[in-house]
User: What shape does this take?
Amino acid sequence: MPEVSVFRSLFAICFAFFLALSWRDSRAQLPAMGDGAEMTAGAERQLGERIVRELYRDPDYIDDAVLAEYVQGTWQPLLAAARVRGELPPELDDRFAWEILLGRDRTVNAFALPGGYLGLHLGLIGTVTSRDELASVLAHELSHVTQRHIPRLMAKQSRQAPWMLGAMVLGALAASKNPELANAVMVGGQAVAAQNQLNFSRDMEREADRIGYGLMTQAGFAPRGFVSMFEKLQQASRLNDNGSFPYLRSHPLTTERIADMQARQPLGAPHAALAAPVMEHSMIAARARVLSNPGVDLLRSWVAEPETTGFATFSAARRAGVLYAAALASERLREPARAEALVRQLLLLTAGDAASARQARLLAAEIALAAGDVPQAGRTLGPDPGNTPAARPEVLLRAQIHLRTGQPARAVDLLRTWVAGHPRDASAWQALAAAYGAQDAPLQAIRAAGEVQMARLDYAGAVDRFKAARDFQGKSGPMPADHIEASIIDTRLRLAESLLREQLLER
Assistant: This one.
């Protein structure tokens, strides 16, 4: 029997259960900010971490540098706007994670979780037609978090509710690995039924709409994106949603909500005043669709689309998306010659636009690396920027190039600089561990592997790796060059052991 995706089902089951706790009170007037303080920011963060730890282990979790960078480019201005508008008090700003996890799922969905974590399916990225529409979804979910909707719901219930949710998380994980356990975990299917009908209260949805709208306009996104996203969801609802839009079930649309967003548009703004799709977004959406695990038939249809008779009549943005999808799909189908030919067309098309040209170069380098043409990948990316800070996709690609050209020291320098400023980047630590291994620096490699586990909140795994590094250092004898590294390992081990003790107490 195929394994059920934890990313797809874990939150559907557990969050539905969580919301079911407060369904009977969902139409009550919202308490004022702070009335839900029975759960502290620290406790909410711990609850969120308990859930997210399981997501990191799920095969549907994806850390794609290109997609993550684009999402962060939308997310960070929204966070900054929340600070400016006073929607993000310092206690939450400091204690919460403010992290978005991407799921390799073709359904249109996004969800807020305890502690400042958000989930975003690739299907949603592949469906929205502009960055403004993506911003509207993220702003809405961010507002659920900043307004403490989760603890405000839970405050109406037993103090044991958070730990009951935690038990459901672990139970759902077990069920996903062994479907025969599902009935026991879901208590006769009640959680599944709740999934299909429960949602934040109507007042909370309206509040998230109102505050989210203010955040996205403060952040510089077009307010029309909020309305166009609602229209897209409304159309899906009218077509009798077949399950590909779970966002409609967790965030049901009402005529009142849609009218409210339309009324907030600036006076005199024409209904169609939405910026034309840009090439960069079209390419990002195409990448999300290809990476969301479609079948071979769909990949082949994307590969063939540039050869259709109507392709030449498409807008530049649409042609860029079609070529990007076709090139990446060809690479996934292991057809390097076709992928290279398609990406050359894409490079020519995007040459006049800096943002889209960069995306085309990143894809061309990725395709060249997959084909084993490492020199071509290096030429496509261009020379190292030197002291100029590099962006994450370039850092990870250049590190691969350095490793595959026998230059691990250059990869180590590049990655060490990056993780110094981004200590929770598990993928970068993983690449650094490989680079240290290629450089014959086993102590540093083991320590980097421990940092991977720390970044993924697997404190037991981190303790294991840091102890292994300490034991290795003891067996190999003191080496002057390793004294600083050994001191860092001891410090990190103590921290990992402390976090592990806290984690065990939660159970």
Q: What stands out?
A: The domain at 276-382 is CATH 1.25.40 (Serine Threonine Protein Phosphatase 5, Tetratricopeptide repeat). The chain has two domains: 6-263, 276-382.
